[in-house]
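Sample 3 of the quickstart, ligand zinc ion:
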Amino acid sequence: MLTIVCDACKKAIPGPEKQTGVIYILDKALCKSCEKKLLTNVSDEMEKHDKFIFSDYQDQYIATVNRMCK
Ligand SMILES: [Zn+2]
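Result:
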């Protein structure tokens, strides 16, 4: 059986949750709790910006994914 491991916390994602508990971002797989952390990190970063620019958000999102999935 294929085991999916979260790229951020390196924990295996258990069977039934593979359907609903895995979020694929870029070439990574994240579990639900790491996705929450990711979104929190990204919005914290975005609050430091004066205005919301979507391309900034995308850059931040990708940078944060890559930082969490080392
Ligand atoms: Zn995780």
